[in-house]
Design brief:
Keywords: Oxidoreductase. Belongs to the short-chain dehydrogenases/reductases (SDR) family. This is Short-chain dehydrogenase/reductase SDR. Pfam families: adh_short. It is a single chain. This protein is α/β, with parallel strands linked by helices. It has a single domain, classed as 3-Layer(aba) Sandwich (Rossmann fold). The chain is built from nine helices and eight strands. An eight-stranded mixed beta sheet has the order 3-2-1-4-5-6-7-8, sandwiched between helices. The relative contact order is 0.14.
């Protein structure tokens, strides 16, 4: 259990993708510091089991909200349930995401990688802004990746309808995370809410399982450069809790330090364009 310093007693956090991997570690560390932590998961039994495990490990208050964040109605319902339960939100960690070897579509008919890895961040954050802006010093942490440096946005075909490549779709979603972070920071100027993105590293546990397109031979080459879940979660917890980053917003971190981003990720016009595109995807269905 992580030493509970700095104290988060009296604070509330919501962590997506928290039933395994770095999300589970992030939730554990925030609970260990005294925060009341809501974890979001799709499977009721697994999510409840993880919450019990985290409570036993930390002695903290860990609660659950069920939802499939690839489905926009579920994203909205998760936010409604949270807003009904809590008037404040001190820490939002957008961490749910995945890599898909073959192209899939959500129940909304949107390519899965773009929907889960980017649009869920965008929509959930929008839906929770009322409680975030009502909370002094609220922080948003977005899980991105250095994979963002390997691509540019496919404006003509963001859903890869003209030919799907899993790694390209994943990298595009991670670039979208950085652009979203920067544009949201711009739009939140004048408020007390900050938002930053981070690269967790090549997280060892579960990576090959979650990324079935990765051959065993390639994983053998990459494994020496991988990190543990605890190491992968460290920067997220730092961004969520450290006084060192108070007031910093719109930045990208790795290993608890500000890191450079690609030229594409610094394109303010692209960030605003992605925001407008994202809005068209999440318009409520009447």
């Amino acid at each position: 259990m992580t030493t509970p310093d700095p104290s988060l007693h009296g604070q509330v956090a919501l962590v997506t993708g928290a039933t395994n991997g770095i999300g589970k570690v992030i939730a554990r560390d925030l609970a260990a510091r005294g925060a009341r932590v809501y974890i979001v998961g799709r499977d009721a039994d697994k999510t409840a089991r993880v919450a019990r495990d985290l409570q036993q490990a930390t002695g903290g208050d860990v609660r659950t909200i069920l939802g499939d964040l690839s489905v926009q109605a579920d994203v909205r319902r998760v936010a409604r349930e949270y807003r009904a339960a809590e008037p404040r939100l001190h820490i939002l960690v957008n961490n749910a995401g995945a890599f898909y070897r073959a192209r899939q579509e959500t129940r909304d008919g949107i390519e899965m990688t773009f929907a889960l890895n980017h649009l869920a961040y965008f929509l959930l954050t929008q839906e929770l802004l009322p409680v975030l802006t009502a909370t002094p010093g609220a922080r948003i942490v977005n899980t991105s990746s250095m994979a963002h440096t390997m691509t540019r946005l496919r404006w003509h075909d963001p859903e890869f309808k003209l030919g799907y490549r899993g790694w390209s779709a994943y990298a595009q979603s991670k670039l979208a995370n950085v652009l979203f972070t920067r544009e949201l920071a711009r739009r939140l100027r004048g408020t007390d809410v900050t938002v930053n993105a981070f690269h967790p590293g090549l997280v060892r546990s579960g990576f090959a399982h979650n990324n079935q397109g990765l051959t065993s031979a390639l994983w053998g080459l990459l494994r020496p450069f991988s990190v543990t879940e605890e190491q992968g979660a460290r920067t997220a917890v730092y961004l969520a809790t450290s006084a060192d980053v108070a007031g910093l917003s719109g930045l990208y971190f790795t290993n608890e330090h500000v890191a450079p981003v690609s030229a594409e990720a610094l394109d303010d016009a692209a960030a605003e364009r992605l925001w407008r595109l994202s809005e068209t995807y999440v318009q409520p269905v009447h």
